[in-house]
User: Fold these one by one.
Assistant:
Number 1:
Amino acid sequence: MAPPPVARGQPMSAAPIDPAHAAGAEGAAAAADVESVLLRGWQRRPGRMALATATGAALLAGLALLLASQPGSLVSPWMADAFGMVALLCTTGPRQRLQALAALLAGLALAGLLSGLGGATLLSWLPGHAAAMLLGARVLQVSPDRLRLLSSPRACARVGLSAVLLPALVAASLSVPLMLLAGQTGASAPLAWLNLVLGSLIGTLALLPLLLALLRLKPAEMAAWVDVDTLVLLCVSLGVAVLALLHLAYPFVYIGLPLLVAAVRLRFVQVSLLVLCVAQAVGAMISLGLLATPPTTTHWQDALVHLSVAMMLVPSLLLSASMGAALEREVALERERERYRRLYERTPAMMHSIGPDGRMLAVSRLWLERLGYDERDVVGRPSTDFLDAESRRRAIEQVIPAFLRSGECRDVEYRMVARDGGHLDVLLSAISEHDEQGRFIRSLAVLEDVTRKRLAEQLALQHRHTAAMLESIGDAVVGLDRLGRVRSLNPAAVEMIGWTLDEVRGRPWAGLLGRQALDGGSAPGDPVERCLLDDSRPAPVSCRLRCRDGRWRVVRETAVPLHEPGERGDAQSVGVVLTLQDITAAHDLERTLARQAHHDALTGLPNRLLLQDRLHKALQLRRRQHGRLALLFMDLDHFKQVNDRHGHDAGDALLRAVARRVQEAVRASDTVCRLGGDEFVVLLPQIEESPDARRVAQHILEAVDRPYRIGALELRVSFSIGIAVSPEDGDDEATLMRRADTAMYRVKHEGRHGLGFHQQGDTDLGNATV
């Protein structure tokens, strides 16, 4: 956005972008372009980059302010916003972006002070340009259009709307109210707003395409992109601009003509340079009063001149992007033609192409190898020269006439003659190509060795027999080649893994499905890998497989090597047959039974049996590490009254709610157990000191003491907690449980709703055992 004349007191400035730089979308191919060089510069020499950024901003802002101060100036091209957008775009990390922001603001402020702007003017000027640069840099960062700017008119137009027009509108809408509040503009608010929009629009439109195009260049290309054609058209464009502004009634029509010629002949980056130079020259001449504008009755009509300048720049940029797109398509088409030609020649199949005169146009490499010819001995000769007498007669009398009528033929049996006089029986299938008028151009034929075809038929029959047998097997069977890639699936395998054979044929089996140990840990050894490595039959492995639908299945994997006779009569490994037996139901039943044996049915907490096992292991660990553990024996106070007053259903719901709060109040490594009834035990396997156990118990008391909403009831309960610490209060399971129980009963006798440690004088009031 451009500042209005200094006399009208309406300058503006720029701001930083907050999100991280997105140049990684270009990948490794952009590692050596100008943008990458600037990114490395901010990482290695941030001070120099900040100084360069401040200098650039100051020069561009100073130039705009200088033109704006001229007597005939209404709007001067403001290019500092475009410079700030690109400067912020080429930083990475918060620190570099903050340095770039500070440098930009310092440069703009310096330019404003040197131009005679006061502090109030700067304060009303900076936020608008800050918003413009921030918004523009953000749009450029997240939009892929800037990467396609050079070869897509649609992307070019979208960048113009989002990174040129939108920031100009937002910045003007922010700046005008601030300038009105500060009394910095003498013009009407709408006119000031329009001048700010047009100035920024012209300046950003002139500079931003050039900067974005330069970012895509490699440093080695920087010296070569300004050539003789560019210099000639630059001189012509500037000369036409000067003459048209001084002598012609409708100058902008004529000024745009050399730019359109440049758009056809030059690259986008060169056209952008011409647009920048012409826009700056036109803006300078308008500011210096060298353009005789037509008489106007209102101030806003002067803005039409600058709007014409902006509209003059757009067609050449869009046309240049269109020419870039056309050039890319032409290069891609030529590359594709060359690729298809090489593909035709190198494809591992016998192929040939025949022209309208019946002579050979092209042959594949395998065709030449099988028949023993060189390409120069084949191309240009009649195709029938390579057939024996019987095949030649049949081709001339039957096959070729039928082919010309129908445009195709399939599985025609020919006997071809090799260069050494040998014969090759083939099956030929061909199609014809025609031009737009329907005239025959060429034929494309594929030839297949009959011997190989017969072998393929035998293999197909064997495959059908094998597939029929596999379909009757309930377990999943996967056939793999010697590289571990999927070759076949029976219906049970398709149903289990969720992929069809067409979707996974040729894909490596390793990594196709998620694989874990039964306990969810690291996957056990892969029997397929072992089978391929050792050519042996490894022991079956049970594991969990994550299939395509996201479900985990427990399977038993059995891998068997597959052998075929080799050339020397020995067996050679050609792959693996993998059998997956689904044992999910049996495994789930086993886990369910194990959980029922070790967990409380009502609350899902560990029961007495599981507590005994964990306490035993915790004591063993404590002895090795010479640490401490604590056991909290907890009993609900007056729980029997809840059952008596509200029924057992309410009591069961309350017990489940209490269990959840106790679990939430302890660490994940602690064990919360329900012994039965309203008795709970908490095992703290690792504590530093006894007060740690007190803090946990107090936290449990506070958590449990909050009201419970059970249906329409609001209930409150509390715990009496007894604490025993090992080794002080014992070093075996039974002693710790008994003493924690004793401490709990002492708390109950002392009034309930509290906690207490076991003391030496406590009488054994309880009879708890693990």
Number 2:
Amino acid sequence: MMAQYLEIKGRYADALLFYRMGDFYEMFFDDAEAAAAALDIALTKRGQHLGQDIPMCGVPVHSAEGYLLTLIRKGFRVAIAEQMEDPAEAKKRGSKSVVARDVVRLVTPGTLTEESLLEARRHNFLAAWSEVRDEAALTWVDISTGEFRVVPCPLSRLAPELARLAPREVVVSEAKEADLAGIVYDSGAAMTPLSRGSFDSTGAEKRLCDLYDVATLDAFGAFDRAETSAMGAIVEYLDLTQRGKLPLLRPPVKEAPGGSVQIDAATRRNLEITQALSGGRDGSLIAAIDRTVTAGGARLLERRLSAPSRNLEEIHARLEAVRYFVSEARLAECLRADLRKTPDMDRALSRLALDRGGPRDLTAIRAGLAEAGRMAGRLSDECPDRIARAAADLLGFDDLVAFLNDALVAEPPLLVRDGGFIAAGHNAELDEARQLRDEGRGVIAKMQADYAAQTGIQSLKIKHNNVLGYFIETTVTHAEKMLSAPLNETFIHRQTTANQVRFTTVPLSEMETKILNAGNLALEIEKRLYDGLKAMILDASALISLAARALAEIDLTAALADLARGEDWCEPQVDESRAFEIEGGRHPVVERALKRSGEPFIANDCALTEGDTPAIWLLTGPNMAGKSTFLRQNALIALLAQAGSFVPARRAHIGLVSQLFSRVGAADDLARGRSTFMVEMVETAAILNQADDRALVILDEIGRGTATYDGLSIAWATLEHLHDVNRARALFATHYHEMTALSQKLDGVDNATVAVKEWEGEVIFLHEVRKGAADRSYGVQVARLAGLPTAVVERAKVVLDALEKGEREGGTRKHTLIDDLPLFSAAPVTPPRPAKGPSEVEERLTSLHPDEMTPLEALAALYDLKSMIGD
């Protein structure tokens, strides 16, 4: 056995080997030690190898999926070796023969299909990148849904594309492994190198043609060599990991480069589009706006937010569909009620195609198609073209649904081996087997009554024992009759005892065999019928996939309409102009959080264009006043509009945005040796080197990570470059108040500030953005609000006053800051002593009750208090 284990392990050296032994998957040697530590299970030993104990651990087969999920999340790959024959068959070859085993599947992050291993509302992409001479391409699949796409992708675009897709695993040529490691690592994906031969474009084309059973790929589109290479490599990897059982992949779709808004990884992270900075979904844009009721709709929403369209026709069609459901609220609610009963047909299809499905996947298809037909009936000819096309894709499944209704029970078991999922009356042979299995005694009793009537012997009995099986028993007196003609032609003598004679018949022997095998026969018939139903569904898989996509489209459109109605969002005007005019704009995530606490969100306007002149708002104001919120909300409004959604504003006019850049917040990257300032500069450089005149740029506090004059210089030059070279629409927040003078020098720059109000030394944040410039940052007041010790705050005020006084007086003295203040020679402010309790005057005041005093008593009390504190 150990020789077999080592032989299989040698073929999958880079994976943990789950070696099936009865009801357990067992691991040995280094695999056992690694798995025991990762899964927190017991490490034991089994026998010896080369004189050393063999470490061993195992997990039960019935609960293996949970352990698989843990291992995959911790970065392991798992090869699953199953028993390929019955142990009884192995024993026929000899008592010491080993049961044949082989790997049936290689489980990796990008090839998961089990419901328990996947997030229902998110894609699980496997990607591959290939470069052939001066061409390069990125392809990706989700084998759990059949999604298969490819896009031209030079190396410079690989990082943004991976940030958009967030794949779990990326396949690369081993020749490019070193060059791509950093990019793939930054995307959060696992990287899997394949041989150069896997990326050969000629072999790749043949693999793809074999997969789709076509002579040429021309029917799917024109693919260059790099695209064909990448697609072929991903198919080969799937063939390797699925051990020949290829998933049900839709025909590949080629995406046009530049079809969506360019958003780099830093911008996605800063804007928290699909993931919050904390790492989870809570607090992200998608978590705040997701009102879809199906898994397919949720996945479509994530795709739309990750890749807002730049195609005006597509944007307008999406907005028209949302507008229709906004106006037809009752229809939308009825559809949403239907959608809540719709299972995830895409993933059910995938499991069936990979032989990992079960009866519940059959009923999921049945339920989904039945709901699809009902929904199509609700949609009239008056709905927009986009919805009408979706409705048309929901039709044509009546015969299939009727057949599945006839064939399947309402609530089937999870596994085929459990049986009981085929409905009674669907198959006569199965009904007979079940009757024999469940009603064997009744069948025998009926035969007994028939034989008693045939012989006229009412005392005749059919009995059973372990030696003879079923037999007919009668007395010796009656036996003579059965041994005589013509009954002796039917009844065959078996045994004579002292008082009884036993017989059998050919029908009774046959019935005995049927009864004994009825349970296994019923299950075998159900398995055969399951295979037939599965084949019937897979034959219609292309149309079922279209229906699943149509359901996702309707779900997302109705969800966006529900969001628009519920949150008072407006339909944006999106056109070819350079406009960016927002009235009453709001941040959807912040507004949602404030609603929970019962606080209102202060809406603000933003107008970045005047005619054809590029416009930049230079935004000043104190910390905590809402500058970052204002920056982000305008970026998110643009993103939502081009994703095809209504937006959180009273009115929005947005000229098509080609690129979205955001440099908000600060973080270091210690793993790559980058300080906070270096990260800031790298991200700023990427913006200045890429932004075109249709970009929307959001910049916050450029230059703050270095010395004051260095930072001011960098921020100043950055703003000039955006204005003169990039000519982009931009919001530029800064604490360098000196930069407000640029509005007089640069025509396209305007000053804006977040308003505050001072009252008795306190600062009150109004969260209102107004035209004009701030002259202070109120940092000391914010520090006090943050809880800095009083002594520190008071000392900071002294230093600030001295600095501001020195700046006003100017001068040419070459003294240091220490000399000017002097900070370290001056006596620090004495912190106030903590109060020791109420004073005598306070105690006297507490004892007074003005409502119960006469004017004379009140005057006397006032004189007493005055005397207590002195004249």
Number 3:
Amino acid sequence: MTNKNNSLGWKFIDNDSTFVLNNPQKSSYLYFPLVNEAGMMSAITPTLHGDIKTSQNTFLMAPVSSEDLHNSRAARNFWVHIEGEGAWSATGNSSKQLSYNFNDEEDEEVNLEAGFLWHKVTRSNKRIGIQAELTSFVPANDDQVELLKVTLTNTGDQNITISPTAAIPLYARSADDIRDHRHVTSLLHRIFTSSYGIEVQPTLSFDERGHKINHVTYSVLGADQNGESPTGFFPIVEDFIGEGGNLDWPEVIVKNAEPHAKPGETFEGYESVGALKFNTATLEPNQSKSYIVALMITDDRPSSVNEIAKKYCSEEQFDVLLEQNKADWKNKLNNLSFQTSDNDFNQWMKWVTLQPILRRIYGCSFLPHHDYGKGGRGWRDLWQDCLALLIMDDPKKVKDLLYNNFAGVRIDGSNATIIGSEPGEFVADRNNIARVWMDHGAWPFLTTQLYINQSGDIEFLLENQTYFKDTQIKRSKDLDLEWNPEHGNQLQTENSDTYQGTILEHMLLQNIVQFFNVGKHNNIKLEGADWNDAFDLAPELGESVAFTALYASNLKEMSELLLSLQEKAGVDELQLAKEITILLDTISKPIDYDVVEEKLNLLDQYFETCSHKISGEKTSISIKELAADLNSKADWMINHLRQNEWIKNEEGFEWFNGYYNNDAEPVEGDHENGVRMTLTGQVFPVMGGVATEDQVKKIADSVTNYLKDEKIGYRLNSQFGEIQQNIGRGFGFAFGHKENGAMFSHMAVMYSNAMYQRQFGHEGFDVINSIYELSKNFELSRIYPGVPEYISEKGRGMYHYLTGSASWLLLTVLTEMFGVKGHLGDLALEPKLLQNQFNEQNEASVFSYFANRHLNIVYKNKKGLDYGAYQIQSISLDGQEVAFESKQKAVIVSREVISQLTENENHTLEVVLG
């Protein structure tokens, strides 16, 4: 990496990836996640805006999108009325202070410090002589609570008298009510005051689930550092702000009013604010006083508010819980770390390591840019997030998750697209939309293959699982009107038994059905869309050449995996559903793959046999014959793509056409509006071995020429110049944004991965380095450490934290850049590090988890050679030389050697390059 000066933005201050940022309030759209495994999900900004929730239907603070971060006045505020000075907000949320951002003479000094996963803002006003330090986190326990500690310090030379008031608006209901019945749902509010704070328990829930009795309670509790409770409360928003006032300049704060309520009172039918006023105090110079505020969501009103206050609202408990929280997140992240010549990159990758965990908890929702989701993850997200889990921990801990996921596969090769909250729970789609993404069948094989390579558990392929069943049949082209939802969502046999097939059978169907599901040009139909969800307007004649290449690669590798299963497990035959033999045409009745109609007719035959129920009969198939069938299909696809989808344009550049539109026209190539090219169309032919080595070189040149932009990196596509109603809504987006020509991290990282896989290490490195440099260039990106979903035309990082690109980035850096991966359970090493990635001692290392052992794998490049010039010369484990065997360009260390090491200890694997 390049070690550019990062003085204009955040910088790391320790080896735990803690970072600091000066004047964070001067950057718009910044937000930070606070979360725990119990499901407390928060977003917090430098001014403590954001929201707090546990689900779509339980928001403590009002839900916010990215624009609300600067439009909304609702924030976690902490007011201080200073005698002789007036109202001052410790969070900067007063009308007066908000103007400071544009008035350097009266500017307050603000600093941010953050780590895993805590957030601290320090705000100082030298003229007044006061400093506030605000620390926020979500404890690592089973409670749904966010804690805030505010420490006020007299930084002047005179005594100051302060009257503090915590003020957090309590939305206390479903996100659906933010506009729809906003006032009506406030009439449901029942507000209670107790010794330590305010609780809101609406009588009913008023959302898409119907009008139901509500028990969920939203609380704001607080005490000073000594455990002393508030002196009183302002529970109702309209009384708190006063007529003509607002949350930035509330009347009761400006006038330092006496509290409106004491403990033990009840109020009904109003918007509420958790406004807790504390006793007036006098601070001598350099004296400090702290206040602890707990923001909590509970299933019912707490039986003892005093017990909760004792648990959370003391400085001692706060500090203990904060250290526990730091230790918990460190433990979650300690199985993977990288050491290169660029320490900023090493630390930045730690924040990338966090991101798949965040997506597992938040799903694709509940952070400000992710305002389109209602919780949960889609099918593609689930499988790709598992990639990171498999390399960060014991793969067998992920086994049950993988197994449960396969229950979402339909017998027609499609799948449910929304994952429920319980293991193995699926629904067809949100709002029961009949839509099929053609790429969905490809991802489970990639993830399962990684699991088998990491664990050696190849017999997982033989475990039996159910199939998902609903009214959608023939890949959502028809309806099964005989299906009765009361019978559940599992495929039945003609005898009304629940049918089960092996995991291998599930993957086989997902991939082999697609081989026959082709369009006019004999590539797989685009259907509802592929990975690029915005290519959604070509369901009749559209084709995805890109994912035809991935399915071809899957069939080829599945064929090889079958032969490994035969060798490793001693299995010669497999039991498959009788109906599937129709699709194994080379075994039963061969057809001409060049004739589209023959493929579609055969597929229709198969669909007719399994549209309602299946026979339940199974057929024994030879592994050798099955592997040959898959291999023949893969070879046909590869030859077809090489011969028919390779483009050479007028400027002499060459690459693959990635798509056909709904007019059955190729999408890429020369056009009157300019050259059209997609990155996706190149990634999968390269990654899957469809492109020859010569073609890979030409693709790299074409991508550099047409898609690489020094300002924003590798674009997802070139400028098409017009709306493409015959391919997808994405071209309605402005060019350079999201799916239309942005640097979309997911596909850019996959391009890097593909280049690394094909031994183009410098090209692979350049992509990852560009993403890293763009992300850490705070002056443009305006994001905290980590990888965003995409970089906008202005260079701003967008949709931070919850992106599948994080899993692929971790996978690529570990398995391709550092070359540490599994091979049917054994350890394979094939480093592709460049010379400038080794430190001054000519070393680079990765701390990883393999075979249930912690390994510090140290590459020693004593001669300072560049990638391509070195090979692995010797390997030692804890000082003892280890035997290895060469396999293509990698070396293999037996799993048995590693398994003999002591558990729960760190072991060093030294690899000498020369």
Number 4:
Amino acid sequence: MTSLADRNDTAPKTVAPEEETQTVDITVNGRSRRDVVPTRELLVDYLRSDRGLTGTHIGCDEGVCGACTVHVDGKPMKSCMMLCAQADGCEVKTVESLGTPDALSPLQANFKKFHGLQCGYCTPGMLMSAQALLDRDPNPTEDDVRKAIAGNLCRCTGYQNIVDAILATAAAARGETYTAPLGAGAHPEESEGWIGRSVERAQDNRLLTGYGRFTADQLPAGTLHAAVLRSPHAHARIVRIDASRALALDGVEYVLTGQEAKETWNPFPPVINLGYVLNTSYALAVDKAVYQGEPIAAVAARDPYVAEDALALIDVEYEVLTPITSIAQALEGTVKVYDDWDDNVGMDVSFTEGDVDGAFERAAHVVRHSFHHHRYTAAPLEARVTLAAFDVATGDLRIDMSTQSAHQCRTLFAQMLGMPEGRIQVVAKDVGGGFGIKLQIYDDVLPVMLALKSGRPVLWVETRAENFLSGIHARDYDADLEAAFDADGRILALKADWLGDAGCDGTNRAHGIGQHHVALFYGSGNYKVPAYQARARGVVTNKAPYGPYRGYGKDVANQSIERLIQVAARQIGMDPNELRRRNFIQPDEFPYEILTGPIYDSGNYPELVRMAEEAMGQATFRRRQQAALAEGRYIGLGYAMMLEPAGGSVPNSVFNANETATLRMMPEGDFVLLTGMQDIGQGITTAYAQIVAQEMNVDPEQVKVICGDTDKVPYGLGAWSSRGAAFGMSSTAEASRALHQKLRKIAAQMLELDDPFQLEPRQGGFDGPGGKSIDYRAIGNGVHLWPGPIATVPKGVMANLEETYTWQSKMVRWVPRENGSLSIYTNHSSGCYAVEVEVDIETGQIRLSRIYVAHDCGKVVNPMIVNGQLHGGVVQGIGGILEEELRYDDRGNLLNTGLFTYTIPEAVDLPRIELGHLESPSPFTTLGTKGMGEGGPVGVPAAVMNAVEDALAPLGVELTETPLSPDRMLKLIASARQEV
């Protein structure tokens, strides 16, 4: 590993003679140096490129996210907002000054202990802000901590564990012991074995100390930097493009335009095709731009500053066309996004099963609810980053990228570039958040094309504005549901209609259009529905590409049915949870096949509701609510069930049905696991090591987990649909069991036993009769060294110390029945989400007072990691329902392209999140595990909406549009007051 001193003494880069420069004297982490730097160079770029201190990250370009926070003369500063010249004569400290991987500082150690990091991208900046607080205040309160880190955004953790880590560090410095408040993160009962134990994560030491390996952190010599010219118009023909002035700029190596890209390479391949209408699109717009932000040209230059300069010199003449900016306009069809389409409808599927009409005719109650859900996005702190290098001598192409699925990307690159796939290596090291928007290749192909054309390595780092303009968007749909109930409140039939705005496409650049198809399958949620009729459509518009965001249709279905239950309970005159109980699938009915084909594997929905009601004080809440109302305060309590179909397995797509693991024992008795899964911060490398440790009777420290390199690991489909718990854990467990049996047979041969089952497993080996025993090191040495495999390996056993297992879902059914039913998900986690809110009717502000989650994801392998995933997901769900919104005007211009105007939750916005666990192991996975990464954004939105409606019940407010932003709430409240 490069030493800190070496990294701090990286040779200064060469400055072009024509650039305006300045000499600076800066002390960084105690080491002083004089450098000549470009006058416009930012301090963050100086630290990363000139000093080699890549622990400082860039996440927003505008000083909002805090990932670039360092200390300048003892004060926390945003280094992306300072010129290097402004630090002349200053002392700068970065995260590398706090501790080292083998000697963490107290603050870093507590971040690890309390699981205060996941992807680790925001962590260095968060640590520097936290350390500044501790330096000035040895006894901070929780409010003090939340305010101190309010300028540091985290997209993964939900902040709670970070707050606890900081408070614990302050307490320890005072000689006190810190205990997190009760209920803040209640673990399931810890196991004596490795499965079920909160093992600290293996990768945290390097992420905490600036030794992360994110894509932009380690660049080959001579790397060029890419910048992308994007269409300023949502819909426009490209009349003429002239890049000659850009090419003439000193430092520019190549400019790629759409026509050259089309003549050289193939269009984007579709990633999913279940009978949808497919468009043909290239890496750069050729004749027409179909959304604001679509790439028009790409530049490769000696540094990012020159690359940006070159964009301004590319001359493009546009013929501006009428844009489509709404679902209604798309359906009208007077304007088309794609000239060769019959209309703007990309998907239209229907389903009917049971006597729907008859049920509605005999119903005692018919309830209808419609709403519109807005458009938003994942906004990971690390946007998309790609580094491509082509070896002319060998014909090999290496692509380092921030992706959730290295093998999928490799296959798609091969199809698009027309290259042999074996010549392409895709490497995903540390990934700064994914959440579904880093699955496909899209703009990521542009630096690859520039590397092939220029013969030089090319790095592209997506800016925050680009991430909003052309990154994958989500949600944006209309829902219309109608249910028939009998006199006792039992569902007789359900009708549902979903219409989604898929942006410019949902199959090639992204794959989102199919999520409403998934919503159709899961429209019944956690409930028994004897008759069902549904339709799902997706239309194209002149907006950015459309894809998954911590949910793929399950979020649409869940919010729809849970809102309908709330409205139905009010109209029928019944408590919402009582209505839920009367319609739940019961624990003794699992496995349970719903009408559309999915098989729910296990669960106990009534118990989840009971847990949530007890935790929230349901029995006394109405008295508290009336007392508050008498004081002019509007408080409300809302519940929502959550159903998370996980482990997707979709036919005719790159998202299908297998995952492979290879477990290898070294001659010295330690283990290496190779998995096609991808760690994007969720902690699979630690959890998988725990599984191997459990099956092989060793410590997790003896297991190294390798993922994210297509030249090293077996073909796998990566991290999406919470499939790591089903596919990745099952393949890991099965490979471990197979290798354990092989080792048992070899051990029996070496100990001269006739029956391998005379051996009993023990820690690190086997015990046999008569006091015989053997450890793994003796087996490994015996096979590979002395005396060798001919003597030690029985006949019929492969003479190696590894096993490979490919796990496939038992739940999948790809052949549809006559009604179109399918089963494309492996397991179904569940939960009950409960939220208490207070609504200020004068400002429209919604304050969350309490959040409780009763959760069931089957067998829990690492409770600490599961709790962290739930915390982060809940906060993303809160942001999505309350404040995050991508707003377009009627010309298709995106109005918020930065974190000043697209606001995501900060630590000060949130209460503590309380958790309760229930374990209903799945009978269909090896360990009984189920996916659990998407539950928060799936369950929280409806719970918040239900709570707000409950709070405003005296005014008769019904919510039919999201987000619940203050401006929208004020309009609803004003309208309700007029009616009252």
